[in-house]
Batch of 2 targets.
Target 1
Amino acid sequence: MKVNFVLNQESVSVDVEHSSRLLDILRDLHQTSVKEGCGEGECGSCSVLLNGKLVNSCLIAIATVEGCHVTTLEGYRNTERFEAIKRGFEVSGGVQCGFCTPGFVLAAEAILSENPDPTIAEIRKGIEGNLCRCTGYQMIIDSILSAKDIGKGLW
Amino acid sequence: MNKISESIKRYDFEDKISGKAIYTPDVHPEGMIYAKTLRSKVPRAKILSIQTPTLPEGYFIVDHNDIPEKNVIPVVFDDQPIFATDEVNYIGEPILLVCGSEKSVILEIMDKIIIEYQPIKPIVSIEEAQSCRAPFIFKEQPHFVHYEYQKGNFDECVKRAKRVISDEFRTGYQEQAYLETQSMIGDYDGHTVCVRGSMQCPYYIVESLKVALGWDDTRIRVIQMPTGGAFGGKEEYPSIPGVHVALAAIKSKRPVQLVYERQEDIQCSTKRHPTIIRINSYLDESDDIIARDIEVKSDGGAYAGLSSVVLQRMIFSVAGCYNVENLMIKGTAFATNNVVAGAFRGFGGPQAFYAIEMHMENIANQLKTDPIRLRKKYFVKQGDTSSTQGVFHDLIVLDRITDEVTAMSDFFEKRSRFKSEKQKGIGCSVFFHGCGFTGAGEPDLIKPSIRLKKDKSEVEIFISSTEIGQGALTTMRKIVATTLDIPINHVHHNYPDSRDCPDSGPTVASRTVLIVGRLLQDCAVEMKKRWDEESFEITQNYIYPSHLSWDNQIFKGNAYPDYSWGANVVEVEIDETTYEIDVKGIWAVYDIGTPIDSKIVQGQIEGGIVQGLGYAMMEVLESKDGKLSQDTFTTYIIPSSLDIPPIFSKLVENPSSIGPFGARGLGELPLVGVAPALASAVQQAIGTKISKIPITPEDILRGAQL
């Protein structure tokens, strides 16, 4: 089937099996920041923003994406908000092996766009669906707190 | 703070934060095809026949017939085949690859392959292995290795003893759960085979390819790609998918990608060894511990892998940080038809320290003495000898470490208060991690070598050490730039490529900063003397420090080149209704010598602690009849952001005499001590002994006197 959606502000049209996973379609469209970690919606490595909401793209059938806005890090990294999040992760040491990082960056955007001044508890809740095996999470939480201050006024 | 400890921006940061870092599954060279592994579904059987369907054009199978030289993955013993031939020994053992351009077609082909097995009764536990008879899995014996060593006059002391305190502990499997599964790409240009992938140890794969292909180094190239976590799980295991893609690439003359699915990865890759550890402590009339005998049994799974070396670290760690002069220590790594156990951050240390530290806790309770005071009485000091009679040459500051951690956590006040507050508990642990290869492994087995090249104002590092998230691309540059006293942006360092990088050893054993970093420092010192020369390079080989010695036949001498030290306190409260453990806080103090980058160090500490927390109370992984009961991220539960307690860590600075700028090893240490501190806290909270990890609510329900 043909599916039309907006990827990082640009219209795209794909002709694929209706049950194809959004994850695979995005990777075929060279969005390699979208990683497969588990394929069952547990790890969040394949996180993307679907109409601004954080989703696991491995659980999204492409047919349901018709007409939607999809944001991956390939698009998001060109924004001013990304620069603030990047700086936050730099000063607070939120990156180690980097495989989960794109998912956490988009999770941070989802948290801050919902609430520009989240508490630590809200950040923990907001990244609950993203697994990281390297950091132990605290430095990622600190990174999002730093990003919130650095990017004050952007969200 | 030493200048080198000041944190700088990681060199891998920009690529990773922006999603531009290219991991193995992201690479699609022209003409690339896919491979998928067909695996044994039974724990032990003879393969009677394999029926394959007619393959569509462009699709092919790779199996043991495609191996030009030797069907062996060389680790310690050459017992593990690259592909099974006429028998299988564990569920998940690779039998063949199906390769081609469409993943869906590959799966259809795999569905049509019929393997006829003749089952053999599997051996599925340590207990079964102990009493099993022929046919054995490994040679003509039930185990891969059995070791024994003694210190002092054990038999004499046992006769003198007035009291024996005994414990038996059990530890479970743990899965590394790196976020990127095992991933490899093979290429063949008609002369050279090139394997790129997710790995810790490029030269392990080089060696495996040499054995399998019978080719010399000039035709073999291995390159590390950015690697999405490893934790030991990409030490020896990647040699299997590495050789697989090489064979497929040679057969098809096309690039071949092999990326494991998560369930496949958990089912068939290596795990932390389950153990049973028994400790008897012999006390004299003044309740002094005068001797100990300890027996460690581990489940090595179906092939020997690194089980021998892991067992060595277990039995060299299991006497703990204590100077008990008379010891009898035994260890056995059993062969079973379970998944192969192997390297995992801590490498035997977490099991050993869980056991000895719980035993110390239990002795303190039995003697009605404070657990810290009891430990302090026996702490090893500079000049003492280890359990293997190696002299501890460096200053040991365990008193300072424990004083700091007890003060930070308010340990004594809480320990006393929780005696009357139900469901609350606090526990402690004191531990070390031997840094560098076991015994004289560095000079005898690894023989690490590094290369440093100067071209005008630029310097390039050539080492085989990998960046696996632990910061090697940053810390190695810092060591070289600081030694040369040049701006760090003039120092270059890339992911290792065996074509350019000498074998500086695997990225394991908390040895990268300590051993490879020191070699780089020595090399940079030489380079600095010749700085006026425009372009030159220096190769440096490891020299075993003259104050160390090791006899591998009788396990006597310095079991490790250096040690790092630590203490943990964990506070818990048990939920009265659900029996869940609520961890209120973890406090941690370490002596890692001089930290090379404070933020990287903090990341290693917190990440290691949270893995230790998972090991202690969350990550249940059980084998039933050779099949793992938890094999997805839905059933195998690792900590999420909602599971982490407040963590407070601190370093005491006590520079190493051999590490660069006084640094010791760090990567593994923070995982090692969490489980016993947590389990001791749970014991105080529920008032009964629990002698297994992970501790589940069900265990607490069974043991609780709430």
Note: The first strand of chain B starts at residue 33 and ends at 39.
Target 2
Amino acid sequence: MPGLELVASGLVGGLLLGGMLALIALGLSIALGVMRLVNLAHGELLVGGAYLGYFLTQATGIDPFAGLGVVAVAMAVIALPLHRLLVAPLAGQGMEAPMMTMFGVSIVLQNLYLLAFRADTRAIDTPYAGRPLQWGPITVPLTYLIGFVVSVVAVAAVHLLVSRTAFGRDLRAASADPVAAATLGVDVGRVHALTFSLGAACAAMGGVLVGTAFSFTPNTGATWLLVSFAVVVLGGIGNVFGTLVAGLTLGVLQSAGALVLGDGYRDLVGLVLFLLALAFRPQGIVAATAR
Amino acid sequence: MNPSSAFRAVAVAVFAALAAPVAQAQAADSIVIGASLPLSGPLAGFGAYQKWGYETAVNEVNRAGGLAVGGKKYTIKLVLRDDKTDPNVVASNTETLISRDGALAMLGSCTPALVNAGALVAERRKVPLVAGCDPLGAFKSVRKWQYAWAIFFEEGDLGSAPFRMMADYGLQTNKKIAVFHDNGPDGQVVGGQIWPAEAKKGGYTITTASSFPVDTQQFGAMIGQAKGAGAEIVLADAIPPQAITMRKQMAAAGYTPKLLVMEKGAEPEQFAQALGKLANGVLVGGYWDPSFPYPGAAELGKRFEAEAKQTQSQHIADSFTAAQVLFDAIAAAGALDREKINAAIGKTDKSYVVGPVKFDAEHASRIPITMVQWQGGKAVVVWPKERANGKLVFPLPAGN
């Protein structure tokens, strides 16, 4: 039976990791909720953010978390023409065509990264990368705490954006009923483009977290896409606050599963939860707040 | 003349024009050597070194005028295919290289899952295949080979090396070991069988033995358990992405054992590059260094560093040697006949860059193991004493 130190550290670490999972999954949730877009290139946008963060830190020496805003804006800017060229023309044609397009984008991006950056495993090095944070019997990686704080702030910011601003109101209207919204003067096309950018920016920020706390290669996106799907379904599609709760829940439950069964079973725990949620509560574990 | 005979004349002319280039190609006198390599995917680090080793051996022969076989000179054409670190792709690549690209003989990929997958196809097609980068136990356990040959180390030597080193240097620890290994074929052999057996022989206790899927990203639970059990020795076997993440997570959990061995993963330069100071003191089994007293060793290391602008890796040596062994055998066979070439490989008995090569009855040629330690971004040979070119750093520095 594992000792108190191990269990406590494991669960707290899981909670912090869960916060990061929420940010990692947020972009996917937004795209799915507002645009009904199953963004299968979400993992590659995340890895793209990791590369951006990596090279930014290498070139300027600034802390990756300090440069998070730059990475987010850069990815948002890159995502706009991507949406214009590949997703916008397929608007109103159902969910399958854009989904398959994004699948194609995913493959193209993986190979672009391979060509441009080689297949080496990279990690964003920070002075505190390997530093532990000790608090009584609990030891957690310092990076996890910083990542958690950054994630919660980012998720809160997006939540405020969606619930309190004019753009957010347009976004919610376009997501609830695009036709009605259009008749009321909402530029649904523009809302979708900006939503896609926002989703990409969130994925990129998640990528910086992944790059700092773990490591990444051109192919790492697929792992995070799977986890993101689990979080999105658990939290309720398009539900920003739900994504946070689901991320935290998943993080804790995965860590609990790892303590009992071993680290290799984390993914199993996450995906079993995913299946259970789909089977018994497909609308998500968190009641939808004002959408 | 009438239309049909005009047509016939034109047809003949067209066919003659098309046939000429084909005849040209045959007269160019080249030998095709095929290789499937992990140029992408998690093992791309190894694949890059092998590519250099194979290409350099080929270029050396071609620059000297070609390979002399039975009184004629042939240019060697190396055809590489990326197997994306996927054994299924290795198998289909090998098939394609043999049937479509016309490979006379093959050179191997890297790590047992990939090399053995290719060797099985080559074996079935009766095509000689020479491989480095395939631990001999894993190679020999597949089947009794007729056409596949491997030049590498024995897992038993690798598994016992840390223990022999600790004994030789009289390193003081509490003799408690934590074993972390992936569940790939060599992870299970080294981590699941050899290390526990060696530990028992040397009077060590294994406090935790954890295995995980090859692509795991989180090691928190097993690191916590090892830390809680107070293990001062950690033996890990995982590929580079996982080894990097594991080392970071160990430091972040405040767990610094006195001795940390990370087989496979800590070998390529990208390990040290990704971890910076955290790589210092990490040990990994090695089998070659430019400082070894073998023909051309120092020059090969310098050449690689000058051309590739990276620190040398031992993988340039076994791949360069595998290619040279194959070319020497083709020349010795005196004909472009696969059976003769295969027999000639079996008769190899010479010192190459990686060391002396001589195959036993099971088609394996053994390279002895050394222990290498990362120190300030450089891979320093620290054991055995007669091969060491630096001092062992013990205990492991915290790095943070």
Note: Residues 29 and 273 of chain A are 17 Å apart (CA to CA).
